[in-house]
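The material for today's practical consists of a large collection of protein records. An example says more than a description, so a record of this kind follows:
***
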Amino acid sequence: MNNFTFYNPTKLIFGKGTISSLATEIPSGKRILITFGGGSVKGNGVYDQVKEALKHHTYFEFWGIEPNPSVETLREAIKLGKEKNCDFVLAVGGGSVVDGSKLVAAGIIYSGDPWEIILKRDYTMSKTLPLAAVITLPATGSEMNRGAVISNKATKEKFAFYSDYPVFSILDPETTYTLPQFQVACGLADTFVHVIEQYLTTPGQSPLMDRWAEGILKTIVEIAPKIKKNQSDYDTMSTFMLSATMALNGFISMGVSQDWATHMIGHELTALHGLTHAHTLTIILPGTMRILKDEKRDKILQYGNRIFGIDESNPDKAIELTIRKTEELFISMGFKIKLSENNIGEETISEISKRFKERNFKLGENRSVDWKVAAEILKSVL
């Protein structure tokens, strides 16, 4: 196991009716900027619950943070926050709203353009306003980590950056009942691949982290069909919601190497074509596994056996069966997992290769995924 320092200060408030705790969790003297997405929270009762909880607070609303939040939209939120002298940010929505709000919380007290913060990648945590979240779509784990991913429409770029942890996050599984089925599928896939990026790397580093990661992976495999049949089962949606949080709050990455090549390639597909982030992961992951099957051999075999019960004596056959099972899982969720099925062709592969070469990207746990390997991965899922 590698050396590590673990730190996660986010307070997690979980369960039915917990949105009301906003009344006491946010100090009464704060001037709050509440950030929202497209308006679904008005239909599922979340908006009314937030307003009721904050009826004795001073707050201002910003609407319209989109999936794959853009710096263009976030500039407007930052402008409002500055005009109203806000000193607290509350994100209400899914991971994109929380991601965008991390930039807003930093941008309100930043003197320059917020895209500069993104380009710095690791922003000083002390230079942000306090941020809290009410989660309505389990997926990114942004409610309990300090990462965010922001897009730039003008330059067609999408980058991750790291700011501060939310002070607290509220997770009420009942808020997920009315989500569109595709959004739920995206949340399940996003959670699954988040775990894979921390798990499908170097073998033998930590049996504890392996089993912890496998517990989440196995759980997603088991609950995905149940959710498809009944999205209003409280216990199942609770399991889903907590799985998404635990997948990316740092708990399963302690002392082990991480990959993230699939994510970085996927970000380019979103930037160039607007594909939903989780959808890009379902396309790229099988390609990553096939092209890097020698490098990831032992871990793929372990993954196949422990998650899908594959018991095949021929290692090459076992690896291929494992990749197919992974593909079948994503297809069962409703995803089209080939680039061509999503009207994406060779020109996109060339553009992504060019970008990776210009940035001198070296991705993966062994830094073996350069622009040439990225092109191989993309071609394998064409």
Q: What stands out?
A: The beta strands are 11-14, 31-35, 58-62, 88-93, 131-135, 147-152, 157-162, 168-171. The domain at 11-175 is CATH 3.40.50.1970 (Rossmann fold). The longest strand covers residues 88-93. DSSP finds 14 helices and eight strands in the chain.
